[in-house]
Design goal:
single chain, mainly alpha, 4 helices, 0% strand, elongated
């Protein structure tokens, strides 16, 4: 392992050191969260951090819809996609072959 990458013992030592500051960190977050002189965004971030530590981050739900018909397999979708690929490649090559116009020369107004 390289010298720049902490090994298992280093990571354990760093984790233990960080945990030794946990009480202070939570107290600091609580002070920021309760301080009316702090910006609302800062107070909300502190409050959210406290909730994340107390209850864990909320899970994200992702809804996946399958609009494929019974005969519409992944293989058939891939085949249709690949069938359109040559046209897309040819179109990209045409765009690539076109030269871009030369930029206009700036006029120096100090002359």
């Amino acid at each position: 392992m390289s010298q720049d990458t902490p090994d298992k013992d280093d990571r354990a030592r760093i984790r233990a050191l960080a945990r030794s500051f946990a009480d202070d960190a939570v107290e600091t977050l609580a002070e920021i969260m309760r301080n009316p002189d702090e910006k609302a965004q800062t107070r909300a971030f502190a409050a959210n951090s406290m909730l994340d530590r107390a209850y864990g981050k909320p899970s994200s739900e992702v809804e996946i819809q399958n609009n494929a018909g019974p005969g519409d397999s992944v293989a058939s979708k891939l085949a249709r996609f690949l069938a359109g690929a040559p046209a897309a490649i040819q179109e990209a090559e045409l765009v690539e072959d076109k030269a871009l116009p030369a930029p206009e020369k700036e006029v120096d107004s100090t002359d």
